[in-house]
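Students often ask why we bother encoding 3D structure as a string. The short answer is that it lets us treat folding as translation between two languages. Here is a chain of 309 residues written in the first language.
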Amino acid sequence: MALKHFRTLTPFLGATCHSKTFGWSIQASWLPVKTYSTATGGEDTGTAAGQTVVAERRGSVVTVGINRPEVRNAVNQETARRLLEELEAFDSDLDLNVAVLHGKGGNFCAGYDLKELANHTTSLKLEQDVTKGPGPMGPSRLELSKPLIAAVSGFAVAGGLELALLADLRVVEESAVMGVFCRRFGVPLIDGGTVRLPRLIGLSRALDLILTGRPIGAQEALAYGLANRVVPDGQALPAALQLAEQISAFPQQCLRADRSSAMYSCFDAPSFTQAMQFEIDHGSPVIPSEAVSGATRFTTGAGRGGKFS
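And here it is in the second language, the structure alphabet:
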């Protein structure tokens, strides 16, 4: 699938609420970190303070962190723009194989910043044609050509849930909470939530979450197939990085061909026959480029007994 590039960013709305009514307490931690921007291609030796999105490169893996902990990483226009830039840059960087999306300060993302929606309505515009502009949350309309993993801690709700759904895999901490919390405020899912969620967990379960807006914990999310891994609190990012490095170590042309075929079959294929045709058309070029050499390694003893190392 091709990555869609957009000329302008016009975020509109999402969902989060910053209120003592719900018992939320925010603790911001502004620690100096070295960052690498995939969008600019350079290292930033400053602090994370003031940067709404922080990218850090680790070999062939890049982490992209939402950095607004004081509002549970709610996304405003600037954050949406930066998320889009970093994920587009990741997808076009030949040296990067996997990206990990996470939130700084204990929460993944609480959705779009409703304070901005309430106070700056005139500056917010919505691009109705999904082929001509990005989604309100930034990268939600992208069709990435390489794997994205979401490391989910704390709240991943409303538009934050939609960002998690953009990922191929979700590593979720035990105390994490997911849900369509925007149901309470009349804010619609317009960043792919009604499209991706039913595909991932089935229409019946998706409608349960969409219509009620109820919270869903990590274990229920795992049972639904919404979470791929459940890990102890504080371990989502390390576990996601370990998973990313494992995926990055595989032959990449083959991995991306299989991934592309699975995505096409799920979202785009008009028939079984056309899905099968897409699979053979994109898989067969991998045989001479990677499969033959892989088979040769196997005959010399590599990977015997199901070993991965």
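Translate back mentally: The radius of gyration is 20 Å. Keep this in mind for the problem set.
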